[in-house]
Amino acid sequence: MSLEFFVTSLIVVLLPGTGVIYTLAVGLGRGFRASLAAAFGCTLGIVPAALASIIGLAALLHTSAVAFQLIKYLGVLYLFYMAWGILKDGGAMDVAAEKSAKSDFGIAVTGTLINVLNPKLSLFFLAFLPQFLPANAANAGIELAKLALAFMAMTFVVFVGYGACAALARDYVIRRPAVMAWIKRCFATAFGALGAKLALSD
Questions:
Q1: Which of 34, 42, 78, 142 is the most exposed place for a label (fewest CB within 10 A)?
Q2: In the structure, how many helices (H) and strands (E) does the chain have?
Q3: Is residue 13 predicted with pLDDT exceeding 80?
């Protein structure tokens, strides 16, 4: 694996997306342990896209408009659901509902679904991974799997870092309900905007 792969992957992982926003929201609302579950779920959600790109199913999504549109709009609906879930009582960022909070397993499942229902993730892997495939690779499938696993490991580490930062800021926002309410609206708006962007994309 080249230095170019690690640098490019790090830049991609650091860019704020649905997984980053979800991990930050959970870290602020539930604390570091819950953010670990979110980070793990978001990382696990990469597996189907990575497998699709490795075995060539991503090409099917690219050529089949119906398949792509179906997955896309499921993703749109889920992002809007996430926006609503953040704002409602007992949502991901509702600190007051900590005793009845969603379990770590539930948080991880939500994180997984966020990435599974992102059709562009498979297209990203289809375009991204082959660029770093060694020209003399004896087994392209194994090499692509190694690159995908390295990308997932970087994703998990970076998301854990995001979650830790959010958890550190948690004590501050808990003591300031107005600040927490403003942050919840910002995160809900972000999920809504991402859903709208996905809905309008080709």
A1: 142
A2: 10, 0
A3: yes
